Amino acid sequence: MPRPASACVATVLLLQLLLLVTVPQIAGDIPVDESEHEQLLSVVPCIRRLCEKYFRSERAMKGSLAIINIKPDASEFQRHILRSFNENPRHELGVMVKDASRPHWNASHVTEKAKNYLMLIADSSALAAPIRQLRRLPTWNPLAQVVVLFTAELTPLVFEIEVRNVLQELFDNSVLNVNVMVQRYNTSVLEVWTWFPYESGGCADNIDRLRLVDECEYVLQEAEPERNVRAAWVFRERHYFSDYGPKIPKYYNYCPLKVSTSIWEPFVVGNASHIEKGLEVLMLDAITARMRLVPVFSVIESALTTARITADNQTGLYADVLQRRTDLMIGGLHENPISRKLLSATIPYYQDDLTWCVPTARHAPKWLNVFIIFNVWTWLIAIGIIFAAAGLLYRFNYVERLYRVNYTWMLLQSLAFSLSVYAHYWPRRVSIRLFLIGYMFYGLHWNAAYHSFLISVLTRPRYEPQISTIQQAIQAGFGFVGAENTLGHFDKPDAVSRHIAGAYRVCRNLDECLGRLRSERTIAIAMSRAHSSNSRAIGEAELYCFPKAENIYTYSVSMLAKKDFHLLPKINELIRRISESGLLGKWQKESEKIRIDEDQEEGGGGAGGGGGGERSGEGQTILRLDHIEGAFYLGAAGLILALIAFIGELFYYRAKRRYRWRDNLLDRFLL
């Protein structure tokens, strides 16, 4: 009668079991068929017993999973192994059976990672196929416990070669928790061999020594009537595991952690020959110190970091990691579709933006300083009041007949009153004096307002309108520059993206292109916001990056590692603790301080900001000629007009005498 549905079956169904073999349940240990004399079948009880030891098995309701690869034409030995797992009375493992000879159907909805693998192979050459299939499954877990069982007896001549080949194949796929079961030749003893990557100061770089960790034999113990002991099947075992310690230890013998990086402030600060500091460098220093590793840095050429990202393992950006020359990559990197297929990434620890950076708006022309204090309408009203008051004064003088003057003279007196300066006019009538008193108070107020605002305008810089959106940049005829790997963000059908893609120019060295912003006023550079504000190529006050609403792309910064890097879980754990402790903010300030100190050394510490004038030692503003050049322009314009008027009067006088013109109204203004 079939075994009833259980929690184990429910778990396996949830994880899309392809083939589950169910057989009648038999209580107790699994006896060896006494009629079966094959030595292979005699080790099956030991296989299950040792797998129970190595496999990490939680209760089935928690979803523990063991994957066994068995072909449809499995031998009696393989079916016997499967039957032994299925008849486990505790049902602690969900068993998933895989056939590496057939493609696996889509299992993207499966989220539970396998914790255990049992691979049955005749020799090491048969291992590649199941590994390829398992890696494509969403359940793939390189940190799982892997047991490889040879289904054929190995002679002493080929035994060590085959075991090393198996361990090397799995090591190349970043699987280190491996135990290889081999039946000792011409016996029923099952041996378990493995290697310890960090044994005796090793650094998990090659398989040095093979270690025997367990022996097991399932034998029939003869009856002893005198001791009232009946015959029974028992396990004879020897264990050596405790002599070697864990395969992935807590500390790593100060082994080198090889890191590829580009110089990319504030994440990495330095040059091609020396790495100084930086946010990610300080983070790696803390991580490697905790894990007892030694970081070894190699600098990537800047041209590689800006080139189009490809899967090329010879010359591409990820070539060093793909060829296992380095373990990690840093430098303000983020995941992309290619890196997700080829590499593994740490948890993110920083958010950055890809945005447009342009030159800062230039200072507005200073000759307008004396005029921009008030708007146009205020100036027109003030000038109108001067002319109207001059007309009144001219009329008052005409009534009183005090001075023999013209309207121009009265216009000068009106201007003097409005500027609260001395005016040579003494009227007799009280009504006129009262008018002048009111006009005087108007002049006091106007003069005070003008000069107070004048000081503010002269000592504070004014700027032209700042280009701050992509639409403004397009309208202003800007060119667009950036890395080649950024161009893909503009492969869109909208008009803005098409315009940018058409005007885009590839920049091989982004820092050099940033420096162009000092001299070129109509270029926009696609740049990391964090790098733009920390780059040594240009001062932070010399460029303006668009607000976040105008970002090209927002991404999370992380480190990229070898696919399924075995140290990645420990690195992630330490990154999480560093982030929670607030050290990232402290290190970011330290990275920024390096640049600030260098800027002060280069500038001598005495350079002023982009203010309205030079700063003296006491912080006072010293005005230069260009701050009041508008007044000189105005005076020069007046002199030129006066000269033109004088020349006109001269020609008129000579023409009148030559042609004997009669006196007319124009003579009152020209002669």
Automatic annotation (TrEMBL):
The chain crosses the membrane at residues 367-394, 406-426, 631-652. Residues 144-208 form the Putative ionotropic receptor ligand binding domain. PANTHER family: IONOTROPIC RECEPTOR 20A-RELATED, IONOTROPIC RECEPTOR 40A-RELATED. The lineage of its organism: Eukaryota, Metazoa, Ecdysozoa, Arthropoda, Hexapoda. Pfam families: LBD_receptor (PF24061). Residues 595-617 are annotated as: Disordered. It is a multi-pass membrane protein. GO terms for cellular component: plasma membrane. It is found in: Cell membrane. This is Putative ionotropic receptor ligand binding domain-containing protein. Residues 603-614 have a biased composition (Gly residues). Residues 1-28 form the signal peptide. InterPro entries: Insect_Ionotropic_Sensory_Rcpt, LBD_receptor. Keywords: Cell membrane, Glycoprotein, Membrane, Receptor, Signal, Transmembrane, Transmembrane helix. It comes from Anopheles stephensi.
